[in-house]
Amino acid sequence: MDKKNILDFIAEAGMLKRVQRSGWWMLGTPYRESVAEHSYRCAVIAYILARMEGVEVREVLLMSLFGDLPEARINDQHKVANRYLNSREAEKKAYEEQIDKMPGIIREELSGLRAKYDAQKTKESIIARDADILECLIQAKEYLDLGFGGAEKFFKKGPGHLCTDSAKELWDTVAEWDSGTWWEALGKFDR
User: Fold this and answer.
1) DSSP helix/strand/coil, 163
2) According to DSSP H, which parts of the chain are helical?
3) pTM, full prediction
4) CB atoms within 10 A of CB 82
5) How far apart are CA 10 and CA 180, in angstroms?
6) CA 54, 45, 181, 171 torsion: positive or negative?
7) Do 58 and 182 touch, CB atoms closer than 8 A?
8) What's the burial of 13, exposed, middle or buried (CB within 10 Å: 0-12/13-18/19+)?
9) What is the pLDDT along the chain (191 residues), one digit of tens a residue?
10) Domains and their CATH numbers in the chain
11) 28: left (phi > 0), else alpha (psi -120 to 50), else beta?
């Protein structure tokens, strides 16, 4: 086992901390999350959705954690770029190269998980995709609550791509939810 290849893989995954999500800078939002930030919360949402849907969480979590790994090489492509570039093929090629020098069991597992995710035939893959979409929608709601009205554009088509009942139910709750109030009760002084 070549430990240098493992460390290179880990370092490359760390690049996602520097890659900004491109949809937000297309809108001109004042703060743009990194792909790593998105992936972390996507995994949290994936865990919750998997539990809500009664599905084993392991595959869902792994799909969510590694789903955006190719963006360390090809960047995060927004929908306008996708009009001109074949992002799916680029992601597939980058991902295959990224995992190619990993030890056999890791390479095989990550390859199989990616194939399942791309095919969108299993409940786990559908939940992982819903987590990705829902994370983006929740981020848009947070931007909207902070006063950036342009984020509302994500609400037009995004919710229509959610497939699981759990993701749809959470989305329905987002409309009345104020994303900035969760901490207010925690900060009150007792007298």
Assistant:
1) coil
2) 3-14, 22-27, 35-53, 57-66, 71-74, 79-82, 87-99, 104-119, 123-145, 154-157, 165-174
3) 0.92
4) 11
5) 33
6) negative
7) no
8) middle
9) 689 999 999 999 999 999 999 988 888 887 889 999 999 999 999 999 999 999 999 999 999 999 999 999 998 988 888 889 888 899 999 999 999 999 999 999 999 999 999 999 999 999 999 999 999 999 999 999 999 888 888 888 889 999 999 999 999 999 889 998 888 878 766 65
10) 3-180 (1.10.3210.10)
11) left
Q: Which two tokens stand for residue 128?
A: 């992982």
Tokens of 178: 């104020």
102-105: list long-range contacts, CB under 8 Å, 24+ apart: 102/5, 102/6, 102/9, 103/1, 103/6
By CB atoms closer than 10 A (0-12, 13-18, 19+), residue 98 is buried
